[in-house]
Structure formats: C-alpha cells, structure tokens
Write a structure and sequence with these properties.
two-stranded antiparallel sheet; globular
Length: about 425
C-alpha cells in the first residue's frame, strides 16, 4: 500500500513537472509572438510602432510576479498531521534548504532594474527591425558576455568546454546574422521593402548589444543573491515596479522629443527610431497616441494585455520549472520556444508581407547555437573534454531567456 501511494505521488509529480515545462514553452512563445505582432499592427491609420511603450508594458507584466509571490506565501491555517507530513515531503522535493542569509533590501534591486531597463529598451527597438525568429536566436549572444563578466568580475573558473561552447555560439550567431545576405529574401509582391521581415543589420546590432546589459544584470544579481536571501518572484516583481516607475518618467519626457521628418520613401534614423501619429508628427515616442490606438482597436488592446500576462507567466512558470525539474530542463525550453516561434511566423495565415521563410543558413546557425548552450551547461558532455564533477558550476551556468532573473536566482542552490 505505501509503495503504491509513493508510486502515485511520483507519477503525479511527473505530470506536474511536464505540465509546467509545457506552460513555460507556451508562455515564452506567446510573449515573443505577441510582442512582434504589436510591432506590425495598425490602428488609426498608422503602424503601432512604440518600442518604448511596449517595453513599459513588459515591466508592468513583471509587477504581476509580486501577486504570484504573495499568493504563493504559505497561509497560517492549521493543518492535519497527514497534510503536514505530505507537505513536508513535497517541500523537501521542490525547495532547497534556505541559507542563513540576511534579507536583500528591496532598494538594492534598482541597479539591476536599470540594466534590465537598458536591455529591454534595446531589445524592443531591435525587434521592430527584424524577424521574430531571428530576434529570439540572437538573444543567445548573452552567453559571451555572461562568461566574460563571470570570469573577471565574479572570478568564476571557465573550463575548456566552456570556451569551445562559446565558439560554437558565436559561430552560430554569425551565420544567423548573415543568413539574409548569403541567401537574400525577395520582397513579396505588393509589399514595401520596409514592411518585409528581412532583418535589418541595425536590428541585429541593437539586440546583440542588449545582451551585454542582460549579462551585467545577471552578474549583479548573482553577486547579490550569493550574500542575501530573496525569493525570485519577489525580486522580479520589485524590478517590475522600479522599471515601470523609470519608464513612466521616461515616456513623459519622450513625448516632447520631436524627430526630423524623413524624405518620402527613404529609410532614415527617424523611420527606424521614431513613430508618426495621426497628425503627421514624428516623435521619439508618442505614448498618448499608443493608448488611443489600443482603445481604437480591440484586437490590439487584447494583444497588449496578453503580452503583459505572458511576461508574468514566464516568471511564474520559469521559477516553478527550476524548482521541480532543473536548470537544464529550463534551458532546453529555449530552443523549443525558438522553433515554435519560427514555425508560427511561417504559417499561411500570417500576413505575406511579414511572413518568414525557411533559410538553411539560419537553421544551421541555430543548430550551432543550441549545441553551444547545451555544451556550456554540461547537458551534453563531449568525450574529448573531461566532465567537471567536483566543482559547482551553477555560478557559470546561464540561460538566454533575458526577460527574467528567475533562472539565475532560482538555480543558485541547485547542484549539477
């Protein structure tokens, strides 16, 4: 009887584990798809091009993590002895032992919030200039900066397989970035060149440099969580609060920054960085117009809400997967997410001006990217590189999901 009960608990535990992994992939996929579809939507006769406003929505989504945190706080209701026993077993399986560390002052999260602010801004601007799948793949460049900062700032030791993995990742990124130059994409009939998803070089540059701020953010957070105790969802939630406050101020300022009207039919910095409202004015950001566009278009409004909720869902499911599965299981979800996004934007119902096409060079680059990340995290061990068994590598493990800090915070106490 006890063995049967234990078997059922283990089976239910596996169902829960795979369900949360599936939800993490789904939430990550919805996040990028909704973010990209926001950038190509139209309302009030104009394209919804508001990268700064969309970044603000992302921070609003992060604040929802505080709700998950406080709802998940154990209640003080009396429990039966049987329930207490079952709960203690579950907690021992899902949670690591709490270290005796002082609580992290919330105000200390302002610095990583600023780094997240910079990374999010550059990423969101870059996404307006490139395809969703390319954007998702390019985020893998953070492995380079995380490794460099980890070695020179945190004094983490890098082994030969780490360097080999970094080489694979960088080679893969170069292939992805040059895919449209090697195999050019033809502009579909009836589409303007600026409308097609041919991935501008500037988009790649913005996303690549954003990964430096991602790596800096993760490095600072790792240093803080080594010495202080903080729940991942609480940290993410407060970063969302601080980020929302930052952006509320920034958006008010950008509302009054005017851009030089571009020559008709020419691509300039104004067309890349600024937005045009229904009055014909070019502003660096017009948040009032963005709100009006949302209120005028129900589909756009629903998409904005879905984007906010997807950010919150990524944080919640990401922390849960890290706890009940492993850091490796979470890192595996990233390539699955990329493939799903790529496949979605190739579907026939996607507008032909924004539809993506299979590019063999990009696919090969993606394979190098996956291999590099799996080798770096020791999910795949190469026979000619000795596996490190006696060293805790969690300080050097990374995940390229840049939107949240829960990977780094949630896996610090996990063992390889």
């Amino acid at each position: 009887m006890p063995s049967s009960r234990g078997s059922n608990i283990q089976q239910n535990s596996n169902y829960v584990k795979y369900t949360y992994i599936l939800l993490l992939v789904l939430a990550g996929t919805v996040d990028t798809i909704s973010k990209k579809t926001l950038n190509i939507a139209h309302s009030l006769g104009k394209k919804f091009k508001h990268p700064f406003f969309v970044a603000f929505l992302m921070f609003l989504g992060e604040t929802v993590a505080l709700l998950f945190y406080y709802l998940g706080t154990p209640s003080q209701k009396p429990k039966s002895k049987e329930n207490e026993k079952e709960e203690s077993v579950a907690i021992s399986q899902l949670d690591n032992n709490v270290n005796e560390k002082p609580e992290l002052p919330v105000s200390w999260l302002i610095l990583p919030t600023f780094l997240d602010f910079m990374a999010t801004t550059l990423n969101t601007i870059g996404l307006t200039m490139m395809a969703g799948s390319s954007y998702q793949m390019m985020r893998g460049a953070s492995i380079l900066f995380v490794a460099i900062l980890g070695k020179f700032y945190l004094k983490n030791k890098l082994y030969s397989f780490h360097y080999f993995a970094i080489f694979l990742v960088m080679f893969g990124l170069m292939l992805i970035g040059s895919a449209n130059q090697i195999i050019p994409t033809k502009t579909p009939a009836g589409c303007a060149k600026s409308e097609t998803e041919t991935s501008s070089l500037m988009g790649y540059i913005f996303v690549f440099f954003s990964t430096f701020f991602v790596a800096s953010q993760l490095t600072i957070e790792e240093e803080l969580t080594k010495n202080y105790n903080v729940h991942p969802l609480k940290a993410v939630g407060w970063e969302g609060v601080f980020g929302s406050l930052f952006y509320a101020i920034i958006l008010c300022c950008l509302q009054f920054v005017k851009c030089t009207p571009p020559p008709k039919g020419h691509v300039t910095w104004t067309t890349l960085m600024c937005t045009q409202n229904d009055k014909g004015e070019w502003l660096l950001e017009d948040s009032i117009f963005a709100i009006r566009q949302n209120l005028n278009n129900t589909v756009l409004l629903v998409n904005s809400i879905i984007f906010c909720l997807s950010v919150a869902a990524i944080n919640f499911t990401g922390v849960t997967v890290t706890k009940i599965a492993s850091a490796g299981a979470r890192s595996i979800t990233e390539p699955i997410r990329t493939i799903t996004i790529w496949a979605f934007f190739m579907l026939p119902f996607v507008n032909h001006c924004h539809r993506e096409h299979f590019n063999i060079v990009q696919f090969i680059g993606f394979l190098f990217l996956i291999a590099g990340n799996l080798i770096y995290n020791q999910i795949i061990t190469l026979p000619f590189y000795k596996k490190v068994e006696d060293v805790d590598l969690e300080s050097s493990k990374i995940n390229v999901n840049y939107h949240t800090i829960s990977q780094e915070l949630g896996t610090k106490n996990e063992k390889v």
